Amino acid sequence: MAYILSNPGVYLREIGEDLGLAMGVVQYHTWVLMRNGEIEECKKGRYRRFFGAGKYEEEERIVISLLRQGTTGRILTALSGNEPLTHMRLAKILGISSQALTWQMKRLKDAGIVETPAFPGRQGGAYCLLDSVVPIVRSQINQKVSAGARPLPVPSITS
Length: 159
Prior knowledge:
mainly alpha, two-stranded antiparallel sheet, elongated
């Protein structure tokens, strides 16, 4: 229980690997904790992620789950700054292809996490997080860093 509370959005295999437990043991104990109302699960995509019961709103659970995914977490971290980023700039920062970024951004737009408003003086739009998402992302990044975890790697480039 304490592990899940200090690692919101963790999934079964992570729990087993981090605590050195067999998958069956992890499945049983998470089932018992859910049955007792101590934890909640959030099923998005292919993972069942676990959170302390009543600790997070739905939007927070979704954002935390997305932050725990490799490329998606790096995108959210990059967009958590104060400046919207164009498609090509974001792809360059992340070191991924334009096509891969297009696929990721469609998922994030469909989830209601990212928007692409038009900006004066710019041809086309730029990506930015929805206003309601920014504090969640920043809070999670700050919690990870203050807990001693390395921040998600987002290469910094100039230009």
